């Protein structure tokens, strides 16, 4: 079930304090994270967040990179980015893009600058 987190950032309706958001490091290195905003069927932008890694993996797959943050921080980051909806534990369409092992390898290459070596 998906919920819109309260605009004030407080917890309501049993929403979790901490969530797992699909996110990955910015390609090319640095400490910035890219949060993976998705679109609902009507075109509305949403950041899906999950109350556990198990729920995230069930919807987005085992290769999905993620970040742990508070639900309040997720709402604040998305509001700053112009995304007004954060959905908790949403379902994802079967055909939605999912990370694969080779996607992770390519990202690792862009971060480290050299394939197969530690950054």
Secondary structure elements and pairings:
Layout: E1 18-25, E2 33-35, E3 38-39, E4 45-49, H1 53-60, E5 66-70, H2 71-81, E6 86-88, H3 101-112
Parallel strand pairs: 4-6
Antiparallel strand pairs: 1-2, 1-5, 3-4
Describe this structure in words.
This protein is of the alpha+beta class. It has one domain. It is 26% helix and 22% strand. The chain has helices at 53-60, 71-81, 101-112, and strands at 18-25, 33-35, 38-39, 45-49, 66-70, 86-88. The strands form two sheets. Strands 2-1-5 form a three-stranded antiparallel beta sheet. A three-stranded mixed beta sheet has the order 3-4-6, with helices on one face. A hairpin with a 5-residue loop joins strand 3 and strand 4 (45-49). It is globular, with a radius of gyration of 15 Å. The chain starts with 17 loop residues before the first strand and ends in a 7-residue tail after the last helix. Mean pLDDT is 84; it is low at 1-10 and 114-119.
List keywords for this structure.
single chain, 119 residues, alpha+beta, three-stranded antiparallel sheet, 6 strands, disordered N terminus
Overall average pLDDT: 84
* Unreliable segments of 5+ consecutive residues: 1-10, 114-119
- How many helical stretches? 3
Estimate percent helicity.
Answer: 25-40%
Q: Please, how many domains?
A: 1
Rg calc: 15 Å
**Could you tell me how far the N terminus lies from the C terminus, measured between alpha carbons in angstroms?**
39 Å
Question: Care to give the gist of this entry?
Answer:
With 119 residues, the chain is an alpha+beta fold. The chain has one domain. The protein has helices spanning 53-60, 71-81, 101-112, and strands at residues 18-25, 33-35, 38-39, 45-49, 66-70, 86-88.
